[in-house]
Amino acid sequence: MxxxxxxxxxxxxxxxxxxxxxxxxxxxxxxPSTRAASTLRSNNNSNSRSxxxxxxxxxxxxxxxxxxxxxxxxxxxxxxxxxxxxxxxQQAEAxxxxxxxxxxxEVDVAIVGGGPAGLAAAIRLKQLDNEHxxxxxxxxxxxxxxxxxxxxxxxxxxxxxALDELFGPEWRDExxxxxxxxxxxxxxxxxxxxxxPIPEPPQMHNAGKNYIVSLNLVVKWLAEKAEELGVEIYPxxxxxxxxxxEETGAVKGIATNDMGVSKNFEPKxxxxxxxxFHAKATLLAEGCHGSLTKQVIKNFxxxxxxxxxxxxxxxxxxxxxPEEVWDEGFVAHTMGHPLSYNTYGGGFMYHxxxxxxxxxxxxxxxxxxxxxxxxxxxxxxxRHPFYKRVLEKGKCVSYGARALNEGGLQSIPKLSFPxxxxxxxxxxxxxxxxxxxTHTAMKSGMLAAEAAFAELQKAAAETEEAAEEEESAEExxEEAAEEEExxxxxxxxxxxxxxxxxQSLKDSWVYKELYEVRNVRPSFxxxxxxxxxxxxxxxxxxxxxxxxPFTFHNxxxxxxxxxxxxxxxxxxxxxxxxxVTFDLLTSVSRTGTNHDDDEPCHLRVPEQDLDRHAKAAWxxxxxxxxxxxxxxxxxxxxxxxxxxGVRFQINSQNCIHCKTCDIKVPTQDINWTVPxxxxxxxxxMT
Length: 686
Ligand SMILES: Cc1cc2nc3c(=O)[nH]c(=O)nc-3n(C[C@H](O)[C@H](O)[C@H](O)COP(=O)(O)OP(=O)(O)OC[C@H]3O[C@@H](n4cnc5c(N)ncnc54)[C@H](O)[C@@H]3O)c2cc1C
Ligand code: SF4
Known about the structure:
By secondary structure, the protein is an alpha+beta fold. The chain is built from 21 helices and 24 strands.
């Protein structure tokens, strides 16, 4: 039976106090907060080991009582995003504060990313621990959003299969806010002015079984459940580095980003060195195209036997609409207009909550024409009568965008690496024809949690056995034991292997459902585009159900699909009407996004040489970056003083963390890295 009784409810107020304190970047020593932190620890793990207490108290000191350290150091070549990326010379030149050793906390499992996958993993771990273990397992979730859910953007129609497995059907007794059962649905092919009903593929069927949700509210709800079970959740912490074990090369944990670093890479008054979490297992749950995931895939060659990942960008708004056009529980999916036959994608409209409508467009990032603007295509979608009729008397309350995986089964990398594993969309479990990835993300997290728990139990049993053997052989003298205790020496760190997660995923319904649809998305990649795709998908999903002896492959990255601008004509998109369509900056203002002006730019090009990037990209792609970015971060500004006649500019403050630039830039020289924790969008109802 799944245990849902709160085991650590007493810890929650303390946790909240600690979190508030940690989120205040300019905070100086505050006694109540420090006390709150130690209360948190002792409440959370009443039998905590003394080493942990020691680490915790040094950590509190480091975070809460660092003296003001305005630095006068001058660093000449500040071209790195984090000190870890700097050359040895740059490191030597940097302010010593930036390179001083970080405090480290020891936990059992560290989870990077508090989305559906990370939280499902954390919940499953604590359920198992509370039922079959000591109840003291330390499971930590680090999330870059300022509060849980604030970086979550989805459609979203939620298939409840994983939720049912995690909590039992009883979760419906106290469900997340604004959840709405799908009542009726339609699939339409849009011409410029008509919306022609077309048959719905069986996997798209939602009515009576799936729910329309705001995934950011679902995430908040999941975080509360996780806290009740004893998971330690830290929003407002960007994880910028993986910590590797020197001896084995395995991932030994993670490090959070330094706070209070100026854009010139100098520590400011509020500087706080990042913190390490050393873990027996590290789960990366960063969502689509995770920045640390990119590193582990490379470092451990995890994509050796899989195709490149391919992506789409989803752009979405939430509207409040009048009663007369609102149809509670209505779901619509559209194909065709505004996208051309050779651009993959489609629109959606979901009526949910209290007179709320989610409307959005997904555009496959394998488009060839660099003049396409997914943002402007979305505006065109809303101009269509099928959408306009619902929106024109309403009010847009939210805007956002996020990349999603489209590569399917053949693009999933190896899931485990020494010391950890990839879970959720960072590995790529989205079912493309369904446009659903939340249920598969959650299930993968739960399976990884089960594998980790089994390995932790095994390791604990082995340690106990070894200790008993040692004792019975009377090899350890009393003095030696005392010495060991004084030194605080403990068993050497050993990476856990999560290989068994790989197998349990293969045996699960996640694999089965992705296997069945593996050929659907790649079938749109022929010269016949939409027409061949629709024909093949119909046959495959209705008749073959994936039982064909071949698999279509994704051979080329989305960046490489982009073609020379000289082959296309610029697209003249209409001006916004301010009623259903908006200019980009008005939309960005609805994301609540914010990044400190005086922090290192988190969008990295080599040596931050913007002219070099412009020289490589502008002549061929004529400003593709300013069109694919849904937040106006990249600009080419006319500038006579430049050889190209334009100056490339990065307005990193506007970034909404969708990751599209890192994926689509044809020159592949933009690297999205995490900004300071708590920066970025503050999504509402998305
Ligand atoms: C437009 C759109 C429509 C969609 N529609 C649907 C739908 O209708 N139904 C459905 O089931 N699915 C849908 N999906 C997919 C669904 O949103 C994802 O499958 C799901 O969110 C994946 O969960 P996740 O936990 O793996 O990743 P995410 O939800 O992306 O969560 C990852 C979390 O990790 C955090 N993070 C990332 N890196 C770091 C770091 N280094 N340090 C700290 N924190 C970090 C992020 O801030 C984020 O909170 C849609 C997606 C999009 C974009
Ligand atoms: S800069 Fe990159 S990650 Fe940020 S909003 Fe633009 S495309 Fe998305």
